[in-house]
TrEMBL record:
Top-level taxonomic group: Eukaryota
Biased composition (Polar residues): 1-15
Region annotation Disordered: where it falls in the sequence: 1-20
This protein's name: Uncharacterized protein
Organism placement in taxonomy: Eukaryota, Metazoa, Porifera, Demospongiae, Heteroscleromorpha
Length: 33
């Protein structure tokens, strides 16, 4: 399911969409841990 959505966004933007969320996800999960 997650991979499917990522594929959809990747196709929509035409570039590695996982790079942006990853950048904001790392500092975001630090306080959450």
């Amino acid at each position: 399911m997650i991979a499917n959505e990522m594929s959809s966004k990747h196709s929509s933007s035409g570039q590695p969409y996982h790079l942006l969320p990853m950048s904001t996800f790392i500092p975001f999960s630090i306080p959450f841990s």
